[in-house]
Structure formats: structure tokens, C-alpha cells
UniProtKB/TrEMBL annotation:
Protein name listed in UniProt: DUF2231 domain-containing protein
Pfam families from the UniProt entry: DUF2231
Keyword Transmembrane: yes
Alphabetically ordered keywords of this record: Membrane, Transmembrane, Transmembrane helix
Segments passing through the bilayer: 21-43, 55-76, 88-107, 119-137
Domain DUF2231 intervals: 16-150
């Protein structure tokens, strides 16, 4: 039987509940939903889906940056988290993903309803792939390293 490890307490928390894992669900859902709305627009050419994609890209990018503040506070202020390679990889992948999501939103905002461009779909797919990698690494931090988990 594996020995139980000591939990790593989050500094960005309310009543002991870490903020980052609470805040990240909506941006992730928005950015994954973006793939579906892009595909719907590609399939139907209905401008509704283009507008839905614009909003999902914006909510996903903005919400992700806000949630990342809590994660960054933990990364920079908790020594035991800083010592984890998984934490740094998670942070780097997340910044790459949020940068792409922000670019995706900005380009959509600038071009309006000029028509669907394949770059938008590719950016959405690439962002979704980076989300999957960041989620895997975040899961490792929680389940393998007990970051923000009360193990008592």
C-alpha cells in the first residue's frame, strides 16, 4: 500500500478551497465548446454559429486569464508547488493555450462576420489539444502531488 503524502496547501483559496480549480471550469467549457460551434458554422454556414464562436472565444480567453491569476499565485508563493516539474509544465502549456485563445478571439473580433476561415477552426482545435495536456498535468498535481487537497 502506498503511503499517504502530505497535502500542499493553496495560498489562493477561500476557506481552504483552492480558487484555481474552482474557476477554470467555465473557460475550459467555453474553449471546448468553441470547437463545436466552429464545426457547426463550417457545416451549416449559419452566422449564428460564428457569433457564438466569437463569444465563446472571448469568455474562454478572459476567464482563463482570470483563473490563471490564482494558479500563478500558488506557483510563485508556495515553494513545494514551485519544486514540481508538473507545475511548471502546466503553467507553460496554459500560458501558450491562453495566448492562442486570445489570438483566436482577437482575430474573430477584428474580422467580424466576414465568413468562416479555416484558421479559426485550426486555432480552436490546437487550443483544445493544449487544454487536454494542461488538464492532464493539473490532474497530476492534484492526484499525485496532493496540491490543494485535504488528505487528513
Amino acid at each position: 500500500m502506498a503511503e499517504q503524502q502530505e497535502s500542499i496547501v493553496s495560498r489562493a483559496a477561500i476557506a481552504g478551497h483552492p480558487l484555481h480549480p474552482m474557476m477554470i471550469h467555465f473557460p475550459v467549457a467555453a474553449l471546448l465548446g468553441l470547437v463545436a460551434t466552429d464545426f457547426a458554422y463550417f457545416w451549416t454556414t449559419d452566422p449564428f454559429w460564428s457569433r457564438a464562436s466569437l463569444w465563446l472565444a472571448g469568455v474562454g480567453a478572459a476567464g482563463g486569464w482570470i483563473a490563471s491569476i490564482a494558479g500563478m499565485i500558488d506557483l510563485l508563493t508556495v515553494r513545494r508547488i514551485r519544486q514540481k516539474i508538473s507545475a511548471w509544465c502546466h503553467a507553460i502549456i496554459a500560458v501558450m493555450m491562453l495566448s492562442l485563445a486570445s489570438l483566436n478571439w482577437m482575430l474573430r473580433y477584428r474580422h467580424g462576420d466576414d465568413g468562416f476561415e479555416m484558421w479559426a477552426f485550426y486555432l480552436s482545435l490546437f487550443t483544445a489539444g493544449l487544454i487536454a495536456i494542461a488538464a492532464y498535468l493539473g490532474g497530476r498535481l492534484v492526484y499525485e502531488h496532493a496540491v490543494g487537497v485535504d488528505v487528513d
